[in-house]
Cation-transporting ATPase
Amino acid sequence: MPVDPVCGIEMDESLAVSYDYEDKKYFFCCNGCRRIFKKKPKKWAKKA
Ligand SMILES: [Zn+2]
């Protein structure tokens, strides 16, 4: 199951919000977390 790199929550892929960054797909529990990721993708991508 994908893990939200921002809040660390594990979620079902069908319920997740996805975002492509540098040829990698990231999944988020909600649009709020995706927005946070988009602000500082470098910081969060490292944690993923
Ligand atoms: Zn989240």
